[in-house]
TrEMBL record:
Pfam families: adh_short_C2
InterPro entries cross-referenced by the UniProt entry: NAD(P)-bd_dom_sf, SDR, SDR_fam
Entry keyword set: Oxidoreductase
Keyword Oxidoreductase: yes
Entry protein name: 3-oxoacyl-[acyl-carrier protein] reductase
Length: 251
C-alpha cells in the first residue's frame, strides 16, 4: 500500500491497547503517526520509540480530547511538524460507570454521553479544515458491540457509543462530497484491554463459547480493520460499521 506513505494519522488514546496497536500498524504501512495520550507520557513515548525502532515515523502529543483548547494546541503541534491531519482514528475512551440503570444517577449517564460526544465533536472539528482543503480524509471512530447488544451494567457505555455510531453516519452523509469517508469499527470483547479487565473468567469463557471463531479479539485484529478504513484503497466505503467480534454479532 504505497499510497499511504507520508499520510499523517492522529490516533487518540494511543498509549496502550487498540490505540497503540493501530498506531504501530499505520506506521508500518508508511503513515506518520501522532500518538495522542492523556496522562501516560511514558507509555506513549514507548509506542513512539517502538515505531521509530522499526523504521517508522511517530510523535507523542498530549491532549484531553474533550477540551477544545488542548486539541487546538495538539493540532498546531502536528501542523508545525508535519502539516495537516489526513486520518483521524478516534479511539480515546473516557471514563464510565459500570452498574445497573436502577443504581445509576443521571449525572453518571449524562456525564458519559457528554464526554463521548464532546470528544468526538472536538477532535473531528479540529481535523476537518485540512481534510476539506485537500479534498481527502479518513475518519474512523472506535465503537463497541455493546451499542447493539446490551450487557448487564454497561448501559452508560453502550448508549454513548450508540450515539457515536449515529453521529458517524450523519457525518458520512455530510462529508462525502468533500472526499472524506467516515466509518466505525465496533469490536466485541478484546484481550488485554481495560474493558475485558472487568470480566471474570466464567464470563470470558461464555463470550468465547458464543464466538464462532473460538476466541476473543486481539488488539491487532481491531487495528487491521481500522487500517483498512484508513487506507487509500478504501475509497468507496463510508457510513459503514465493521463488527470485529469473531462472528458473535450473528446471534
Amino acid at each position: 500500500m504505497t499510497g499511504e506513505t507520508g499520510r499523517v494519522a492522529l490516533v487518540t488514546g494511543a498509549s496502550s491497547g487498540i490505540g497503540a496497536a493501530t498506531a504501530r500498524l499505520l506506521a508500518a504501512r508508511g503513515m506518520r503517526v501522532v500518538v495522542n495520550y492523556l496522562r501516560s507520557s511514558t507509555a506513549a513515548e514507548e509506542v513512539v520509540a517502538g515505531i521509530e525502532a522499526a523504521g517508522g515515523q511517530a510523535m507523542a502529543a498530549q491532549a484531553d480530547v474533550r477540551e477544545a483548547t488542548a486539541v487546538e494546541r495538539m493540532i498546531e503541534q502536528i501542523q508545525a511538524a508535519w502539516g495537516g491531519t489526513d486520518v483521524l482514528v478516534h479511539n480515546a475512551l473516557t471514563p464510565y460507570a459500570i452498574k445497573p440503570f436502577q443504581d445509576m444517577t443521571w449525572e453518571e449517564l449524562s456525564g458519559k454521553l457528554d464526554d463521548e460526544m464532546r470528544a468526538a465533536f472536538t477532535v473531528t472539528k479540529a481535523v476537518l479544515p485540512a481534510m476539506t482543503e485537500q479534498g481527502w480524509g479518513r475518519i474512523i471512530y472506535l465503537g463497541t458491540g455493546l451499542s447493539r447488544r446490551p450487557r448487564a451494567g454497561m448501559i452508560a457505555l453502550g448508549t454513548a457509543k450508540a450515539a457515536l455510531a449515529q453521529f458517524a453516519r450523519y457525518l458520512a452523509q455530510e462529508l462525502g462530497p468533500r472526499g472524506i469517508t467516515v466509518n466505525v469499527v465496533e469490536p466485541g470483547p478484546v484481550e488485554d484491554t481495560r474493558m475485558v479487565g472487568v470480566f471474570d473468567e466464567e464470563l470470558k469463557q461464555r463470550q468465547v463459547a458464543a464466538t464462532p471463531l473460538g476466541r476473543l479479539a486481539r488488539t491487532g485484529d481491531v487495528a487491521q480493520a481500522v487500517a483498512f478504513y484508513a487506507s487509500e484503497d478504501n475509497s468507496f466505503m463510508t457510513g459503514t460499521t465493521a463488527a470485529v467480534n469473531g462472528g458473535m454479532s450473528m446471534y
